[in-house]
Design goal:
994 residues, alpha+beta, six-stranded mixed β-sheet, 30 strands, 43% helix, globular
Length: 994
């Protein structure tokens, strides 16, 4: 007896040891995930959003637990029934020994006395497999659980739209999961019956019933009947999915779906129930004849009624008469699509323009303030100037392209081009080691801002906010940037540790002194405390680096900053929102804030057209492909200094936002709570405007037959090319759509200027290249000022007006003699165009295009040199916009127009003013060879830089020949040239220091 007890005790110890080792192994393998979850909770708690994290995590855990438990009970109950049937029937191998019977006998000996435990373990493992993937359905469950009504019903089933958007997706998932769970249960139970001896490949027919016991047959038949019932319910809900069918040319329940597929699903419901009845009838019958008939009936009906017949009907009856058979249903598609994308008449107003050609002097005077804010500084071309003039530290970088916005400057709202100085983690200075990457270089610093409406005398950006350590040259902007440090920005990866034993690098001063700071001393509160050993170990596991655990530079007060990229930060807080591809910085309240437009979306809005998956105009955005409902309902704001995330509601009528607000109480703040200086810089986002203009180009018509025929469809106008040289490509066939453009303008019928985003349309045949008449059909404008934020206006232009499209205007400009002569004058330099502006002036349109010149020299950057304006066939060029407009008005009025000045023209042609040619030696054009003292007067920045290059090269040559005196003289000349260039970089057209 003692030996037996010792054996039992030893067995228990072994079991406990195995279990303990298993738990340790699981903890080791999942340590990384546990550390990530723990530090994520710390991060959410630091933001004051701990309840958001717990709501999401517990929802995921709840789903896994619920579905895993359901599957466990389903499988355990069926396996228990299988074992009971084996005991009742006494099924066991009999007859002559065989390999099959030997296998079963070995199995039964192995599990004897352990069947219950094996059953529990097997069910638990398979339950975790079956229920584990349900965690990914947490968003669908929360939408299902917190659904609000759209207060609008679909045309086919007369149900609220919320049923399709919020409830149907989760119900469909549950049915699909249950069907898969029953199939897996059927397979496992069949194997169990085989191992229990209830199923044989051969056996005594009198006792086993052709190899399957009667109880086993009843059990399997019942499971098959359950599968058929679930499939019947699935067919019932599949009917509702028809409102999002993609079978036809347009999405939604069209003729085939309504006339064939809907009745087919009703029939399949009845067929599935009949099949279930046949399986149940087989409970008391011998053989498998009825089940085979049932399965064959279901397969045949599904293939013929559910697939083949609708496809034939679509091809033979619908496609040949689409305009008549589809009209009613396509009309529903038009209405739903406009509603789903915010293009219905409650959000978009259409106003015709009675277009006429010509601009008067009075109109120019009336639009003086508008013409004074036309964007002339191209963000794409100005970046090189920003880098050359404002890129003082190599470890900072500007955004590409630069951002555009508007600010009140000297009492007037004006357009600006700006960029925050983000930390560039890829530069060699930062990548010198762990301490350099994570302790020393932790943040970006400040911003550079230039006037968007004018440039300095050299044609380069006139800076309003400029060098490091010298925050602003405009008093009205000084207070907006009291705290210039950027710990959270664009493309910030990795993590930073602040308040360590070493100070952080702010920037390098002009004296080469490294200016340093401490996050804590600046009042920073955006980090998670590293704390004791447990937290350090957790962060070391999360970042997969040992340094956060052992680095001596860390102190008890050190904090770790992670999720530093602004889009990643918002996406972590609210992963159910789609984010705009262009976060932009706003200088407000003494800090830099990042504003990111966020979208609520769905792909289940009934009858609405989905965004084409390959839509090139949306490439690189989160609105590309799949969705069929979108609203810009949320403005996300991230403090660049402390990382605070605020999500503001800006569309109280959006049911999707209302549902998420119910799911996460307290996550969203009311839009009225946003600070006033931030509100003034909100704007209509570019991504959704691209989407809306793309959709509108097809859905410009409200007549179904016109939509089907496609003859009146529009296209977004093509982007004018940037090259100025004649003969470089065909400007009329470029496939790139015109970019949306922000500008300050006065819309027709309005009294005041406002900030808008606009885009032009042309007939669709134009962009396909089948037409030679490049005419404008309309201009869509999205308003951004606080009183009108989110409003869309479409200005339509009659086709008889013959207004030229932007790319055709570009072609006319390139052929104009004024530009041709200018390009010849600048031979050897690169002449290119800035972004074209379409300016609505009452009932006419003026195109404005800046012309840039880039010298062929080291460090050359594009400089604004001319401005071209076009109205109708009238093309004029001037040194300034005002000059070009004056020439335009004079030409229109029939007044004489002097030829545009050239850079080589003297200011006065009077012979008395000409310099004598006999009193001094003429310059040779080479600053190293001219005998006189080098004079930088009248030289442009590019010319001065080129002179400096020549002088320094000549100095090196003189030194190599042993002529130290000449080398010193040449270097002195080079310093004069560089000093003059530096002075010009600080100048402005208005005489202010820039």
């Amino acid at each position: 007896m003692t030996t037996v007890r010792n054996s039992i005790r030893t067995s228990r110890v072994r079991v406990l040891a195995v279990v303990g080792l298993g738990i340790v192994l699981v903890l080791v393998l999942s340590a990384d995930g546990i550390a990530t979850a723990y530090t994520e909770w710390l991060w959410f708690s630091d933001l004051g959003l701990g309840s958001v994290w717990t709501r999401r995590v517990f929802t995921q855990i709840g789903l896994v637990a619920a579905f895993s438990s359901a599957f466990f009970l389903l499988l355990w109950g069926n396996l228990l029934l299988a074992d009971r049937l084996a005991l009742v029937s006494g099924a066991s191998p009999s007859g002559p020994p065989s390999g099959e019977e030997d296998l079963v006998l070995r199995y039964q000996r192995l599990i004897r006395g352990r069947a219950g435990r094996i059953r529990v373990v097997l069910c638990a493992v398979l339950a975790l497999v079956a229920g584990g993937n349900t965690a990914s359905q947490w968003q669908e469950w929360l939408l299902f659980r917190n659904a609000v009504a759209f207060q609008r019903r679909d045309d086919l089933f007369d149900r609220d739209i919320g049923f399709y958007v919020f409830r149907l997706p989760f119900l469909t998932f549950v049915l699909d999961w249950l069907f898969a769970a029953l199939i897996l249960t059927l397979v496992v139970v069949t194997v169990a019956h085989y191992l229990n001896g209830g199923i044989r490949s051969s056996g005594p027919a009198g006792r086993m019933g052709s190899g399957v016991g009667s109880g086993v047959k009843a059990h399997l038949s019942a499971l098959l009947a359950a599968l058929a019932v679930v499939r019947a319910v699935g067919y019932w809900f599949d009917r509702f999915q028809l409102v999002n069918s993609t079978r036809g040319a347009y999405d939604g329940a069209l003729a085939t779906a309504v006339n064939i597929q809907w009745p087919a699903y009703n029939l399949l419901v009845l067929v599935s129930l009949f099949v279930a009845a046949l399986f149940l009838a087989n409970l008391r019958r011998q053989g498998w004849g009825l089940p085979m008939v049932a399965i064959g009936l279901w397969v045949a009906s599904h293939a013929l009624v559910g697939s083949a017949f609708p496809a034939l009907y679509q091809r033979l009856r619908v496609e040949s008469q689409a305009s008549t058979r589809e009209s009613e249903y396509v009309g529903r598609n038009i209405e739903a699509t406009r509603l789903a994308y915010g293009l219905d008449n409650t959000r978009l107003s259409v106003e015709p323009i009675d277009y006429r050609t010509g601009v008067t002097e009075a109109e120019v005077a009336d639009f003086g303030s508008v013409l004074g804010t036309v964007p002339l500084l191209d963000p794409g071309l100005a970046r090189d100037s920003f880098i050359l003039s404002q890129g003082e530290a190599a470890y900072y970088r500007f955004s590409d392209p630069l951002d555009v916005d508007r600010y009140e400057i000297d009492g007037q709202v004006r357009p600006v081009v700006l960029s925050a100085r983000n930390l560039d983690l890829a530069v060699s200075q930062v990548n010198q080691g762990w301490e350099s990457q994570h302790i020393l270089f932790t943040h970006g610093y400040g911003a550079a801002m230039a006037a968007g409406w004018e440039v300095d005398p050299s044609g380069r950006p006139r800076f309003l906010v400029r060098e490091l350590g010298d925050v602003s040259v405009d008093p009205s902007l000084q207070e907006k940037l009291a705290q210039p440090r950027i710990y959270f920005g664009e493309n910030f990866g990795g993590y930073a540790i602040v308040n360590a034993a070493r100070d952080e690098v702010d920037y390098t001063a002009s004296t080469e002194e490294s200016i340093q700071t401490r996050y804590q001393d600046q009042g920073g509160q955006g980090g998670v405390p590293l704390g004791g050993l447990l937290r350090r170990a957790a962060f070391a596991l999360r970042f997969r680096q040992l340094d956060p655990l052992i680095a001596p530079v860390l102190t008890p007060g050190s904090e770790v900053i992670f999720h530093r990229d602004v889009t990643e930060r918002i996406r972590t807080v609210a992963p159910f929102l789609r984010l705009d591809s262009n976060p932009y910085p706003v200088l407000a309240g003494g800090r830099i804030y990042w504003v990111v437009d966020a979208y609520t979306t769905s792909d289940d809005y009934p009858y609405a057209q989905r965004v084409p998956a390959g839509e090139t105009d949306l490439a690189g955005t989160e609105l590309a492909g799949g969705l069929n409902y979108v609203r810009n309902s949320v403005k996300a704001v991230v403090d660049a200094f402390d990382g605070t995330v605020d999500l503001y509601k800006f569309d109280e009528n959006d049911p999707v936002l209302a549902t998420w607000d119910e799911a996460f109480p307290g996550l969203f703040r009311d839009g009225s709570e946003i600070p006033a200086d931030l509100r003034d810089n909100l704007r209509y986002p570019e991504d959704i405007f691209r989407l809306q203009t793309t959709i509108w180009s097809t859905y410009v018509v409200d007549d179904a037959q016109q939509l089907i025929q496609g003859e009146t469809a529009w296209s977004v106008a093509a982007q004018p090319r940037s090259e100025a040289a004649v003969g470089e490509g065909d400007p009329g066939t470029t496939p790139v759509f015109m970019k949306p453009q922000y500008l300050l303008t006065r819309l027709p019928g309005q009294e005041n200027s406002e900030y808008v985003l606009q885009r032009a349309f042309v007939p669709r045949s134009v962009s396909s290249g089948s037409s030679t008449t490049l005419e404008l059909t309309g201009v869509m404008v999205a308003r951004s000022d606080p009183d009108h934020l989110g409003e869309l206006v479409l200005y339509t232009i009659p086709s008889a007006a013959g207004v030229k499209a932007p790319d055709f205007v570009h072609s006319e400009i390139r052929k104009d003699d004024q530009l041709t002569d200018f390009v010849k004058e600048k031979l050897g330099s690169v002449v290119s165009f800035g972004e074209m502006t379409l300016l609505l002036m009452n009932d006419t349109i003026v195109y404005v295009r800046p012309v840039y010149v880039e010298a062929a020299s080291v460090n050359a950057v594009p400089e604004l040199s001319r401005v071209i304006v076009v109205n109708g066939d009238n093309v004029q060029m001037g040194a300034t916009l005002q000059e070009a407009m004056a020439r335009l008005v004079a030409e229109q009025a029939g007044q004489p127009v002097a030829p545009p000045p050239t850079d080589d023209s003297p200011a006065d042609d009077s012979p008395a003013e000409q310099p004598p040619t006999t009193e001094q030696t003429p310059p040779t054009g080479d600053p190293a060879q001219d005998p006189a003292v080098y004079d930088p007067t009248g030289r442009s920045i590019t010319e001065l830089l080129a002179d400096a290059d020549q002088l320094l090269a000549a100095a090196d040559g003189a030194e190599a020949q042993g002529d130290a005196v000449r080398a010193a003289d040449l270097r002195a000349r080079a310093r004069v040239a560089l000093d003059a260039a530096r002075d010009l970089l600080g100048g402005s057209r208005n005489g202010a220091v820039g």
